[in-house]
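Lab notebook, page 48
Experiment: co-folding of the full assembly
Goal: obtain a model of how the components sit together before planning crosslinking
Operator: M.T.
Materials (sequences as entered):
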Amino acid sequence: MPTFRAPVVDYRFLFRELFDVASLASLPGYVNADLDVLLTALEEGGRFCEDVIAPLNMPGDAAGCRWEAGDVKTPEGFPAAYAALADAGWLSLACDPAYGGQGLPFTLRFAIDEMLYAANLSFAMYPGLALGVYEGLYAHAGTALKELYLPRVVSGKWAGTMCLTEAHAGTDLGLIRTAAVPNPDGSCLLTGQKVFISAGEHDLTENILHLVLARLPDAPPGTHGISMFLVPKFVPDANGAPGARNAVFCRSIEHKMGIRGSATCVLDFDRATGWLVGEPHKGLRAMFTLMNAARLGVGLQGLGLAGVSYGNAVAYARERRQGRSLSGVKDPQASADRILHHADIRRGLLWMRAFVEGARALATWTAFQIDVELRHPDSSVREEAADLVALMTPVIKAFFTDGAFVATNIGVQTLGGHGYIRDYGMEQFVRDARIGQIYEGTNYVQALDLAGRKLPDGNGRMLRRYLAIVRAELAEAERDPNLAAMANAFGAAVNRLSRGAMHLATKGIANGDEVGAAASDFLQIFGYVAVGHMWLRQARVASQRRVTGGKMDQRFYDAKIRTARYFFERMLPQTETLLVTLMSGAGNVMDFDDDAW
Amino acid sequence: MPTFRAPVVDYRFLFRELFDVASLASLPGYVNADLDVLLTALEEGGRFCEDVIAPLNMPGDAAGCRWEAGDVKTPEGFPAAYAALADAGWLSLACDPAYGGQGLPFTLRFAIDEMLYAANLSFAMYPGLALGVYEGLYAHAGTALKELYLPRVVSGKWAGTMCLTEAHAGTDLGLIRTAAVPNPDGSCLLTGQKVFISAGEHDLTENILHLVLARLPDAPPGTHGISMFLVPKFVPDANGAPGARNAVFCRSIEHKMGIRGSATCVLDFDRATGWLVGEPHKGLRAMFTLMNAARLGVGLQGLGLAGVSYGNAVAYARERRQGRSLSGVKDPQASADRILHHADIRRGLLWMRAFVEGARALATWTAFQIDVELRHPDSSVREEAADLVALMTPVIKAFFTDGAFVATNIGVQTLGGHGYIRDYGMEQFVRDARIGQIYEGTNYVQALDLAGRKLPDGNGRMLRRYLAIVRAELAEAERDPNLAAMANAFGAAVNRLSRGAMHLATKGIANGDEVGAAASDFLQIFGYVAVGHMWLRQARVASQRRVTGGKMDQRFYDAKIRTARYFFERMLPQTETLLVTLMSGAGNVMDFDDDAW
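Observation: model returned without errors.
Model output:
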């Protein structure tokens, strides 16, 4: 069975040396976010994930969820773990103290989320969705709904879901048909069927709050006629306790490739009572508050899975002996060398490491921007941070999940035949990682969001702001002669990103298919540059601290610099081919007769 | 449930127009290999796979194999299908008529194998391994063993296995410990444990023949002390019927990510009776006869899975409606356009198509070389063909299985959320495909075989021979102005292959790690060039026949040329980055402290 070791050491570097996380305490509302508090929380959170959550992961995959006459039984241990999670304060971390939260920064929330997802993705989806409903209600509901529901989510008593997809409406939410008919008392009756609803039914909490997209009778067709409703499984009684059973039922659960401990439900709404959240017909926009948070969360899932797979792959490669090193016997006293000495094994492990540590730095950078966006007193600073978060959201979602799928597969490959056997747990990470490229908007949807929406917005304002930051980092790195080769490689990749953006801007006007055909390659280039930005910064800081002294030991800084080198020499060059294929245009995919397929 | 449609139309093109398969009938021993016979066999074999084998695939995955007190029950329908396969002649196709075979060419065998693997990989592994034992005995056993065993394998009554791996000895077979002690009567008693033995125990046949690697008492250590033995589950009696139960027992079966209908067994040999096959201590070399055939077979598995995933992905994309085409509404009468109109969906589908049709052509080209190697009257022609097959074996194994994993994942992605659900069957292709990169020598082992063994052999003789053929094709294409862009792209990729080979030859001498760090990238470049060679040829032939007329319709030739264009513009450019990373050297993977991991 694989083990999970929390990446606390790396986070210590990120919080104390790579980013000025201590400065968060000076933002209004974050007065309690003392760096020591955050670092202690990190350590305790890591231990909680290691000891309580991770051991349920493999058994949960084997058992899966069980549907019985509309009820869903989650794997053994999940209900107790959910209660423990809430009791220990890991649910309420970043929630508003007004509703029982701790008001700590998202920079910490993201780090804890990575660890929860790494320890047990299936389990961690339940609190993740509960917090999604918290965010949705917090941002869009009126005071009465907030006061009734939010404290119960924050305390872990009630969980929640996002009900968007219908059988014929996945990517295309404009097609949804679920209908909401107003009652005289201001509530509505919802009727329709939702599919692929994660955490749609379970035995973890006494109530489940469904945020449901549906159409009011006067709704215009398409995406501008969708409203958001809150439909609780049990309608709260006068005391706020779960009261009458509402008419929402779990018809079945899906049997999936992975995340088998997460209940994926078909939900039937049969004149279920719900309450409008936010304005009529503006539900899709409201849902995007959750969607964007969820997309970043999915990216963190990828990061977590890649990280736990990496840790287990390294542990195996340190122990397993097969063959002899090609540069000469390394352990003459043993019958074979450890496979860690084989160049291709290292090539794979370093890919994982460079991806994980680069993505972790980028996630932390982005979380920091979220905190600035939420809390900074200066509105222009908030706006710039919001731009950066908006720009990075599709990149983190898609690039992290694509990378996680590569990384977890390297993890399997490192173990050879054992990687393919369920008992070793490495193949579960692959199966669990695979959904990340699909849900919360397929990675193509992310690419279109980036290339077709974020890029043109304000004539490229978001990208310009981001490139200014990137180029400042590049200029700093260019001053350190030790970083010349890396800076050079990175500068070339940044230019490729600009050229790709230019191609989209010029070709995309006349023909939308030019955007469609180039978007995924563009997002990949963006991802490499964004992670490269983090590697350049890590290399620079490590290079400086190696000389001036820092809080980590020399070996840590050395490893950072060498991993950076691997990234720049073996991963970033991918941008070269990506730009070639991006620039090859839409003709080679569109010019194909419909009936020739 | 997915469906399988046999790629008979594409094979008709390959057999009649791309390659001169008709000429095989002029080779000694292939007098019955009339082109019409082969094409009829293709069609009938395709139908058999569609109707009999494919329907067992998803149920077989769901049921898996069951171990009961040493017996293994395969999924329902497998035993009857095995009998039907043998009865219909699909097992004996390429076997020697002296032992009941039909003596047909490997060019046909490969095509039938692709279809069997596509229809049901788990099932097709059983006959595949039986034929592996056939090959091993045919090449290395004495007359008595051959006459006793071969007809029973060919008739489908007895099946077989290859027993190589032990728990501590996977890639490194020099470490195996299973011991063989000679009896006075010439037989031996084998004791040891083998793991990961595919088809090690099952209910398909009345007997199972294990080809086992073990050490004789006087064996030198390492790979030069390994001998090959035949250990039947039941020792044949005087009439050649299954007699005494031999002391080989299935202790357990593995629970795997995929190929769940294939029994992967732990086999205990407890003084089991066996007979030496071939010379003492030369068993590993003998086993390589089987291994090479098995590696090509694994490549065909990848091809098959990619092909069946492609067919189902296209079928879904033709039906599913989501969103509107970015270049304008395509089906105004419907609520949404078919996803086949979305550029990124097409980009994925064309990747699959270009991979599948290119790999299929390359497999057929290689099978043709095998037939020449086996049958041509001129020994120098046979030797050249043998070189080409030896060179291509690791490429087909690794490049096809890597590509199949990409392709089957595109298949999942095309279906979005439905791709992740078991009922749609697309995720099974991914799980089944994943093992191909691992077994029969991991893809890194293939890369080392290519870069460290095949390349230096005779000072690069194999590569020189191959490049001469490739450059002749390039010269032909350069004469057709329609193919100028493709020829140009291909020429650049061929040069990258040469430069990669030169890098290996020069750097590898001083430091073996330089070979290890570059081998996988080199194999990938080789794969792209080898498939590119086939695409250039297909484009050339299609371009000519479109004008002069051929046996296929215009639409077929057009689609070939457009798929070729996609390959040259969007897949082959990958060789650019691969050469950069290959040339980046071993330093960036080897310079990492052991204790810094």
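Interpretation: Chain A has a mean pLDDT of 97.
Next step: discuss with group before ordering constructs.
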